[in-house]
């Protein structure tokens, strides 16, 4: 694989992509502590702190989870609800620090809506490339389990894996969390 030069990182064996200057990807399994860790990273910066939430409350249990997340964050965060419109939300923020939680729900929302996932991922990359603020993304690692037994679940797993790889290639820092503990995969552990 070609070696990186300056602000460039290899996208694949066939091309180069510029790295986003202040992009951090926090990735892990369900209940690994990734959201809490990402919130802590954002709080190290002066505000305002923007939280782009991608979850949708389709039942009372999910509504309770969303309410708990909001209560845990406290009133110091500016929350932007963007289950599908993540790129618009990112483009609407021009000061402070941004936390996107999470890419997994955002991508599954688009899959269920019948969106073109490749186009949505490309639009997200473009919005991140031009973004004036530090951005921290939270995403699930979905490839450590068994191969799903149905086509929809396999399509989601594959699309999420590709999105995670694309964003990890662009990010300055990539951190995984396991049992609440961070492990730096790329860049110094902030």
Automatic annotation (TrEMBL):
One of its GO terms (biological process) is cobalamin biosynthetic process. One of its GO terms (molecular function) is ATP binding. InterPro entries: CobU/CobP, P-loop_NTPase. GTP binds at residues 28-35, 53-55, 70-73, 81, 101. Pathway: Cofactor biosynthesis; adenosylcobalamin biosynthesis; adenosylcobalamin from cob(II)yrinate a,c-diamide: step 6/7; Cofactor biosynthesis; adenosylcobalamin biosynthesis; adenosylcobalamin from cob(II)yrinate a,c-diamide: step 5/7. Gene3D superfamilies: P-loop containing nucleotide triphosphate hydrolases (3.40.50.300). It catalyses: adenosylcob(III)inamide phosphate + GTP + H(+) = adenosylcob(III)inamide-GDP + diphosphate; adenosylcob(III)inamide + ATP = adenosylcob(III)inamide phosphate + ADP + H(+); adenosylcob(III)inamide + GTP = adenosylcob(III)inamide phosphate + GDP + H(+). Its EC number is 2.7.1.156, 2.7.7.62. Keywords: ATP-binding, Cobalamin biosynthesis, GTP-binding, Kinase, Nucleotide-binding, Nucleotidyltransferase, Transferase. CDD domains: CobU. Pfam families: CobU. The keyword GTP-binding applies. The active site is at residue 69. It is an enzyme of class 2 (transferase). It comes from the Bacteria. Catalyzes ATP-dependent phosphorylation of adenosylcobinamide and addition of GMP to adenosylcobinamide phosphate. Belongs to the CobU/CobP family. This is Bifunctional adenosylcobalamin biosynthesis protein.
